[in-house]
Automatic annotation (TrEMBL):
It comes from Hibiscus trionum (Flower of an hour). It holds the Pfam family Rhamnogal_lyase. One of its GO terms (biological process) is carbohydrate metabolic process. Its EC number is 4.2.2.23. This is rhamnogalacturonan endolyase. It is found in: Secreted. It catalyses: Endotype eliminative cleavage of L-alpha-rhamnopyranosyl-(1->4)-alpha-D-galactopyranosyluronic acid bonds of rhamnogalacturonan I domains in ramified hairy regions of pectin leaving L-rhamnopyranose at the reducing end and 4-deoxy-4,5-unsaturated D-galactopyranosyluronic acid at the non-reducing end. One of its GO terms (molecular function) is carbohydrate binding. Belongs to the polysaccharide lyase 4 family. The lineage of its organism: Eukaryota, Viridiplantae, Streptophyta, Embryophyta, Tracheophyta. Residues 419-491, 505-693 form the Rhamnogalacturonan lyase domain.
Length: 701
């Protein structure tokens, strides 16, 4: 009897343990029933121990499978007000029929989006147009494109109607959502179309925005070096901050996190170039959950690989930027004429969620996992699961191969390999026009050490091939239209770039790299210091650097002496106005002093003046006479990129090859005067990329 009683107690203990341990109710009931049946079994405890081990192993295997989603089919539910897609890892809720993303359930977080916001202010597309037109692309219908156990793709659509447009842009809209088995996230892309009879319109900005749960997501990461705890949105109001030189920049005076007191917050401090803007997002440290925007390709972005744009910023807000005038101004082409038919696919991008255990270093683990996922998405591009006929798969695309060499016989006689040059395909235009091309697709790569390049997965269409080479001024364009057809591979062979050059180098300032990064960037005013980067790099991102010029040059302006001065120490990174009495701005004149041992009065010299940025500025050039009523050369008023105020180190690239007669120089000491004439604000400025004085041309074999 004692053995029977022990067996019954053991069975009861196993029953209770399994009931608490198992998350699957069916399995729990199964083990309860089998345990009762074993009460009369002569094998008793041995069998129960075996069952306990098998239950433990089976449960953990099942939990592992559930975590990676491999046995969870994708389910779809459509109701009058909502559409829900669930793959066992994430549950995505979209408002029907508007297409607003209103819920993303992940792990124990019922919604990673801010539940206090209205439905049209959680996860949404938007476009900024003319005359205060701000269109959130609210749709009218939903269509199931694909529904299988492995994938669901939906399209939320709207056809533009001239009779009832209600300040919406003349645009046909498809907002696509894809949820796949085993992927903790969702893919989003848009297909936008203008028909020939649509009225003219500007589309200055196209993006997807996500407003995350504010009491959860406090840690932001946009690169390996830019990762930090961020202020809350309320910290930017007038009770907790002081607005600085423009509305985007505030000084935190009484933030909710005392460690942030005295820092400046400005969303432009976290901008990135297109080529680097592949991953940004937020982490909820309390939950060990990350929310990431993964962009595996830049083909649908505008302005080329170096155009800068926003990433994530206080909100917490995460952005996927496709089109904007940031760092280019209105020079980028965003105007659509009546009669101009247009259609473009933006994306897909992946909204990826991940998690780490409470004992782990959340930030490092989640960031590294997001980078791993980014690598997988890049390897999978172009996606073969997107079902729009407007998104060609790999076999429907083409490839262009070649080699780029550089010929500059004033440097070396032999052809040089164009190492790490940027080579790309973009819409037909002039050399360098890709910087301001805002409607089509662009495909870029970098050359290897001997100048070879391969541009893969190019959509069918007509393109020109463009390039620029580090260390050489100017823009390369192949004088040949390239037509990509599905599946073709074009071999261009060896191409030779002859950069602008009229004579030997007499002297030079800077490095031709299209930025002002090599020049002197001052320490910020301690009052406006910001811990933007982990390692203190990218000082140009700090607020108020433009005012430091007046601190360094309170009386006179910059003087640079060739052969003595060092451009990394003595050439200020931005040519800005100087603040004088009564806080007014004054135009500034910089001097370049140099010596010429001999002068060919009958020859022609060339001043190569390369600009990295310009904003409402004008550079006037004078030779040896600062008081000349008329400058020898003027750029006239140029630029809208606003790079100084937006903490950039470059905007649009410009090159001026200024031919100067020899009689403008004299043997011995000479001075070039560069005057930036505009001074209505501190942000009217230019950044120089590189300056070179060339002597008269001579025969070079």
């Amino acid at each position: 009897m004692e053995k029977v009683e022990n067996r019954r107690q053991l069975v009861l203990w196993v029953m209770i343990e399994l009931s608490l341990f198992l998350s699957d109710g069916i399995s729990a009931r199964f083990f309860l029933i089998t345990s009762f049946c074993m009460l009369i079994s002569p094998f008793g405890p041995s069998l129960l121990l075996y069952m306990r081990i098998m239950a433990y192993v089976g449960l953990n295997c099942r939990k592992l499978l559930k975590d990676n989603g491999s046995d969870n089919r994708v389910r779809l539910q459509i109701s009058h007000r909502h559409v829900v897609i669930d793959n066992g890892l994430v549950e995505v809720t979209i408002e029907n029929p508007t297409g607003y993303l209103i819920g993303v359930k992940y792990k124990d977080m019922q919604n990673v989006l801010e539940s206090r916001n209205t439905n049209h202010n959680k996860g949404y597309w938007d476009i900024v147009g003319d005359e205060d037109v701000y269109d959130k692309l609210e749709t009218k219908h939903v269509e199931v494109i694909t529904q299988t156990d492995d994938l669901v793709e939906l399209s939320f659509t709207k056809k533009w109607n001239s009779r009832n447009h209600d300040k919406t842009l003349p645009l046909n809209v498809q907002k696509r959502f894809i949820v796949r088995r085993g992927i903790p996230g969702l893919y989003m892309y848009g297909i936008f179309e203008r028909e020939e009879d649509f009225p003219e319109a500007h589309m200055y900005q196209i993006r997807i925005a996500f407003k995350l749960k504010e009491n959860k997501f406090r840690f932001m990461a946009v690169s390996d070096t830019i990762q930090r705890i961020m202020p809350r949105s309320e910290d930017r109001d007038e009770r907790h901050s002081q607005t600085l030189g423009f509305k985007e920049a505030v000084l935190l005076t009484n933030p909710s996190n005392p460690s942030l007191k005295g820092e400046v917050d400005d969303k432009y401090q976290y901008s990135a170039e297109n080529k680097d803007n592949k991953l940004n997002g937020w982490i909820s440290e309390d939950d060990g959950v990350g929310f990431w925007i993964i962009t595996p390709s830049n083909e649908f972005r505008t302005g080329g690989p170096h155009k800068q744009d926003l990433t994530s910023h206080v909100g917490p807000t995460a952005l996927s930027m496709f089109v904007s005038t940031h760092y280019t101004g209105s020079e980028i082409d965003t105007f659509y004429k009546q009669g101009e038919a247009w259609k473009k696919v933006f994306g897909p991008v992946l909204i990826y969620l991940n998690s780490a255990s409470s004992k782990d270093d959340h930030n490092k683990i989640l960031w590294n996992d997001a980078k791993r996922q980014l690598s997988e998405e890049i390897e999978s591009w172009p996606y073969n699961f997107a079902r729009s006929e407007d998104f060609p798969h790999s076999e429907q695309r083409g490839q262009v191969n070649g080699q780029l060499l550089v010929q500059d016989r004033y440097m070396v006689r032999e052809l040089m390999h164009a190492k790490s040059a940027f080579v790309g395909l973009a819409a037909p235009g002039d050399a360098g026009s890709w910087q301001t091309e805002g409607k089509g697709y662009q495909f870029w790569t970098q050359t290897d050490n001997i100048g070879r390049f391969s541009i893969k997965n190019v959509r069918p269409g007509k393109y020109n091939l463009y390039a620029w080479v580090h260390g050489f001024i100017g823009n390369y364009k192949l004088d040949l239209n390239i037509t990509i057809q599905p599946g073709n591979k074009i071999e261009l062979g060896t191409l030779i770039y002859d950069p602008p050059r009229n004579g030997p180098t007499l002297w030079e300032i800077g490095v031709p790299d299209r930025t002002a990064a090599e020049f002197f960037i001052p320490e910020p005013n301690p009052q406006f210091m910001n811990s933007i980067t982990k390692d203190g790099s990218d000082k140009f991102r700090q607020y108020g650097l433009w005012d430091r010029y007046s601190d360094i040059y309170p009386e006179g302006d910059l003087v640079y002496t060739v052969g003595t001065s060092n451009y990394s120490r003595d050439w200020f990174f931005a040519h800005v106005p100087r603040i004088v009495a009564n806080s007014t701005n004054r135009a500034t004149t910089w001097q370049i002093k140099y010596n010429l041992e001999e002068v060919n009065e009958h020859g022609t010299y060339t001043l190569q003046l390369a600009l990295a940025a310009a904003s409402y500025a004008e550079v006037q050039v004078r030779f040896n006479n600062p008081d000349a009523r008329r400058p020898y050369f003027t750029t006239k008023r140029i630029g809208y990129d606003n790079v100084v105020a937006r903490h950039g180190i470059h905007g649009l690239y410009r090159l001026y090859s200024i031919k100067v007669p020899g009689y403008s120089f004299r043997q011995g000491d000479n001075t070039i005067y560069l005057t930036q004439t505009r001074s209505q604000s501190s942000f009217e400025a230019v950044m120089y990329d590189y300056i070179r004085l060339e002597g008269p041309s001579s025969l070079v074999n």
